[in-house]
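Hi P.,

Sorry for the delay on this. The queue was packed all week, but I finally got your sequence through. Input first:
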Amino acid sequence: MTRNMGYALLAGLAAVVVLVSTAIFIGVGGTGSGAENTSHPGGEAAPASSADWVGTWSAPPAAAEPHTRKGFPDTSIRNVVHTSVGGSRARIHFSNLFGEAPLTISHATVALAAAPSSPTAATGSMRTLTFGQKRSVTIPAGGKVASDAVSLNVPAAADLLVTSYSPDKSGPVTYHPFARQTSYLAPGDQADSVQGQSYTQQSPYWRYITAVDVWSTEATGAVAVLGDSLTDGITSSPGANRRMTDFLAERLRTERGAPRYSVLNAGISGNRILYDGNKYAPNNGPSAIRRIDRDALSRTGVRTVIIELGLNDLLKRPRQLNADRIVSGLENLVRQAHAADVRVIGGTLTPLGSHQGFSQRLNDVRQEINQRIRSGEIFDAVVDFDAALRDPAQPQRLLPAYDSGDGLHPNDNGYRAMAEAIDLKRLKADAPADL
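Then the structure:
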């Protein structure tokens, strides 16, 4: 049996079960407009009975995809994304941030996946996206666009299929390289294809899409996690949605008394607080100082930002082993968030004692930074990721049960431990502390 045949059989069996359940979620109402008001970061939380726009998924654009000088002309790109909360309408954000030429999307759709990670759409869920009531949109190089709203009852913890078709050459593709999720490509305009047979090419990337918003009564705001590979979930199980942010979203949906927040992943693997990615590591993205507004603060409905950053400043060249400068960078992030009336929770730097880049000097700087984070003088609140992941017998190392194998990145259990270390009550407060 070939890989594709095996996949098709598995997807088909799963679809039998999922189609029954997804049928109750499919919207049948009228269309909405993308011009509706978005919730303002830091504003008063809406009552539970009212609806508002909130982000349900995001992935920051990291770089231009290598070897895509022509883009993907005459190709349909079907991105698979996983929601954190549900809603009755949806709108999609696309980016041409790293493009060098205008990107024309002449046909775009959104649908519920018939089965997890399947390119086949649930029956009756396919919706055509418009932009200013037009089916086609051209995004200038460096630009972005949000679709008009479409009526679609989107469940929480569900896979969406967001498909875009570009007829022309468009230059380098803006992408997120470490999706840990299979997406798909098909030749020609297959944007409204319900069946997934045409999507024969698999991809480990998210292309062009950067966020999904829903009109929701399930959430009164969003928490964005600004981080590096530990937030990106680079070592989590592919297609299983076991990143730290996925586990956090599950807690917020299921635990009694938890804030009614969605979770937005703003992690880029290799990202640093102080330095941009360079020609040797282009996928590391702009520095957190430069991208916090774009990737976290400006996302729809954000009330709180969790910051999980700092290890790459110690590890990557040029290395920054001055704790004062790293703390100053963290304080810069807090100032930007407070200026947007957003609460900030800071994470301690996790153990790396068995990683190849470890040195005692590096660990001493890490410990100094953690001591200052724990002092409460930098952030509105603290989550101690270091304590959650370290081996009590060898505190400079990850607990073996949480180690993916490289001494730096957690496995699925480690990502769950990180999410469980977050005090959900600290996600919400009347106002940011005056630090």
